[in-house]
Amino acid sequence: KKWKWTEAMDIEFDNLKKEITEMENLFLPDYDKPFVLRTDASNTGLGAVLYQIGENGEQKPIEWASKKLTPTET
Hints:
Helix content: 10-25%
Distance between the termini: 21 Å
Protein name: Putative transposable element
Structural class: alpha+beta
Order of helices and strands: HEEE
Organism: Pseudoloma neurophilia
Strand content: 25-35%
Low-confidence stretches: none
Mean pLDDT: 91
Shape: elongated
CATH class of one domain: Alpha Beta
Keywords: Multifunctional enzyme
Radius of gyration: 15 Å
GO molecular function, one term: catalytic activity
Largest sheet: 3 strands, antiparallel
Number of helices: 1
Pfam family, one: RT_RNaseH_2
C-alpha cells in the first residue's frame, strides 16, 4: 500500500517545526567535545539535527534544520 501525505499531516508537520525552532532547550556547543550530525531525507523533504552527548548520555541539540522540497527538487 502506498503511503500518502495529507494536508492534515502538513499542518502538523509545520506545527512541529515551529515548536522545535522555538525550543528553549537548544544548547551552546562545547568545542572540546565531538559533534553528532543526523540527517534524514525523503521524496518531499530534508532534515538534520546537530547535537552533542551530555555528561549523562543525553542528546543536547545545538541546531535543527528542515526543508520541504519543491516539485523541481523531487
